Structures are given as structure tokens and as C-alpha cells.
Amino acid sequence: MKIVCLDADTLGNDVDLDSVFGKFGEFVSYNMTDETQTIQRLQNADIVLTNKVLITKDIIAKTNLKLICVTATGVNNIDLDAAKKANIPVKNVAGYSTNSVVQQTFANILAIRNSTSYYENYGKNSDGWAKSPIFVNLDKPIFELSGKKFCVVGLGTIGLEVAKVAQAFGCEVSYYSTSGNNSNSNFKRVSFDEVLKSDIISIHAPLNENTKNLFNSQALNQLKDGAMLVNSGRGGIVDEEYMAKLIDEREIYFITDVLEKEPIVANHPLLKVKNKDRLMITPHIAWASVEARRKLIELSAKNIEDFIKDQNG
């Protein structure tokens, strides 16, 4: 088997891909792949590993792939219809990043609620705490999570764990099912109107016809003063341009690990926000703990191993 990884940089340089995938046959790894390079790099390849590089109908037609391995959960970068018609299995990896996303979600929430950046800088700055006439600094308010209305949008595997942690903090936890099919007796299910009355809203939903632009200008205008919206799901669920405007007009807090276009463009409206203490942008890192990425590689290798066993009968 010849296995080609198209975007190894997205998996980090602290994982030895050669030792993991080289045991299956010839392994070729590229740090990144431009769309103009994909077909050429996949010539003679049996298996492709891709995180974000597109595998289009044209690419499938002009290569001889036998297996497409997505080193992620989402498979929206693959033309699934074309793959199916060509009898090429598409294997993704689910559940590897749950702990990582949950942890990063609360790390970001707490960083804002506790004014962590301000107080850390104040404590380490020789012109800060060292020159204070009193033992404490109360310039920036900090707020407890306990007692706050915390709504999870998308109560899948990750959303459920977020709900449990929020409950452990003493929050009044509810959830909104974006599909309308999810039911969980441990937490209160609410309507979307009720979602918008929450103190903290944490998004853990995929981008689809039910969630695209779910938090549009009309919805965002209904958020209460002091509300926090956290997007650890997918870009495109929140109207980013309107949110940028809202942050400067009202006391609304926005934390996002994902954007509609990634990486962020230099002229993005969120980069022009004046009230930056109400905004946190992280570069799609919630999934990417060291442990999660190692698990991702292990499960991707398992997908290849299972495929080869099936081929050999």
C-alpha cells in the first residue's frame, strides 16, 4: 500500500507519523498541500490521509484511491457522492477530542469570567501588584459560574460532557436540540427563545441546514446584557459581522474557537472590536490537546488496519 498524508502540519510535529503509518507500506507525508498539487501528489496512492485538504469529484476521477481517511470527525471536505460511486470507503474519526474540547471550552469561559489575562499581567508586572498600597486589586470584576443559566446548543457527545461540567460548577443547565430529535432526561430541554435568555450559551453543534446562521442578527439582539456566547462548534453558526458590532454596542461577550473562514482574514470585523475584553478568539485549537491528537492518529491507523484486513478477507 502507498499512503499519502496531505497536511501533516495540522496534526502537529510532536507525533511520529512515519512510525505509525510506515508499517502499512510506503508512506509519504507533505506538510501542506495546495489544491493545485493534490492530484499529482496522489498519483499511485492507495490511501490518502487528509484533515482539511479537499478531495473533490475531479480528484477522485483522476486518481486510483482505495481508501480516504479523514483525520477529523467532519467529512465536509470530501465529495461523498463521488467517493460512493467510485466504491471508495471514507473513514473519519469520532470521539477522540471530547475531553480536549470540554477543557478548552471552560478554560476560555473562565479566562473571561475571571479576567485572567488582566490579573496575571498585573501580578507579574513590577509596576502592578508590587506597587499596590493594599493586598488586593478589584479593578476588573470576576463573576462566578454558580447559579448562572447555562445552555448547551447541541447535546451530542461533547455537549453532554460540557453540560455535566457546567452542572458541577453549580450552573442551572439546559440544552437546545438543533435537530429536534435529541432527548435527555438529565437536563432540561428548552426552545430557542429560551436559549437566548441564558447567561452563558455554549455551542457544540455541526454546521448544517438547521444551524447555519442560527445566531443571526435577530437572535443576537435578544441576548440579555452580560450574556456570553461561546462557539466551539463550527463557524457559520454565528453571524460574526453582526456580533462584532454588538460587542461594541452592548455588554455582550463572545468566545469563539471557530470562524466561517479559517484562518481569520486580516480585515475581519472581529479584529476591529474596541471592547476587546469582551472578545476571545482562539485559532481552532479546542480539539488539539496532545492526548487528543495522539488518539486521532491511533484511530486513523486502526481505520487503515481494518481496511487492509477486509481487503485480505
TrEMBL record:
Residues 136-286 form the D-isomer specific 2-hydroxyacid dehydrogenase NAD-binding domain. Gene3D superfamilies: NAD(P)-binding Rossmann-like Domain. InterPro entries: D-iso_2-hydroxyacid_DH_PdxB (IPR050418), D-isomer_2_OHA_DH_cat_dom (IPR006139), D-isomer_DH_CS (IPR029753), D-isomer_DH_NAD-bd (IPR006140), NAD(P)-bd_dom_sf (IPR036291). Residues 24-310 form the D-isomer specific 2-hydroxyacid dehydrogenase catalytic domain. SUPFAM superfamilies: Formate/glycerate dehydrogenase catalytic domain-like (SSF52283), NAD(P)-binding Rossmann-fold domains (SSF51735). The keyword Oxidoreductase applies. The keyword Oxidoreductase applies. Keywords: NAD, Oxidoreductase. Belongs to the D-isomer specific 2-hydroxyacid dehydrogenase family. This is D-2-hydroxyacid dehydrogenase. It comes from Campylobacter lanienae.
